[in-house]
Design goal:
two-stranded parallel ribbon; globular; 2-enoyl-CoA Hydratase, Chain A, domain 1; about 240 residues; alpha/beta
């Protein structure tokens, strides 16, 4: 793979681990590496475990230097690549597990939202969609993803107020499925894999498509309509 993303296939489990040496920024390169890793996992028909090798951080989200620069085309390209990756992960034919042992800011949070099972580690960590707090309107694909995965009572606080939540609150919100101690991650992951490993994968994939079709269709529409040069305001609007 690369220095940013490692891939290891072990007994039908594709371990995809992020480590850019800093905060796992979702740069164009990181997003491409993750997409390449999913290519390998899908070709192998493997269950995916996505996690970070960085202590205390899952991902700091999109590269803010790109978002704040004047190169809006590059900003659009990065957001679109992230959106496509989240959509792909949401519909991945094999089960996916995200392990959050640290902070997860947007794009990192989007990837966790797209996983089938999200295991969080107890600690002073935050996860959420804080775009409005830093002067960014959450992209519509992300809003649709959140709408499909979060409990309705928490959606407004997450999307429009930009609240970031600790692990325990995140279970209530729907950002995570369970929280374990740092020492309990290996056992929790082993138990989850034992259960998931007994699934009939074609049935799992079909059930996932049926359940998530409305969300995936809404995300597809948002990507195709908003994340284009026209939708991003890069081309003049016809008079």
């Amino acid at each position: 793979m690369s220095d940013r993303v490692s891939y290891r296939l072990d007994q039908g489990i594709a371990h995809i681990v992020m480590d850019d040496g800093k905060a796992n920024i979702m740069s164009m390169e990181m997003l491409q590496d993750l997409n390449d890793a999913l290519d390998r996992a899908e070709a192998a028909g493997a269950i995916v475990v996505l996690r970070s090798a960085r202590r205390g951080v899952f991902s700091a989200g999109f590269d803010l230097k790109v978002l704040q620069a004047e190169d809006r085309q590059r900003s659009l390209d990065m957001i679109r690549r992230g959106a496509e990756l989240a959509l792909r992960l949401l519909g991945h034919p094999c089960p996916t597990i995200g392990v959050m042992a640290g902070h997860a800011y947007p794009m990192g949070a989007f990837l966790l939202l797209a996983c089938d099972l999200r295991i969080g580690v107890a600690g002073p960590y935050r996860i959420g969609l804080n775009e409005v707090a830093i002067g960014i309107t959450p992209p519509r694909f992300a809003v649709e993803l959140a709408r499909g995965r979060l409990h309705p009572a928490w959606l407004n606080r997450t999307v429009t107020l930009g609240e970031m939540f600790g692990p325990e609150e995140s279970v209530q919100a729907g950002l995570l499925d369970r929280v374990v101690s740092e020492d309990g991650v290996a056992a929790a992951l082993e138990a989850a894999l034992a259960t998931i490993g007994s699934l009939h994968i074609p049935s799992h994939a079909a059930a996932k498509r049926r359940l998530r079709q409305p969300v995936m269709a809404a995300m597809r529409s948002a990507i195709d309509e908003d994340l284009t040069p026209e939708g991003y305001g890069l081309t003049p609007t016809p008079a």
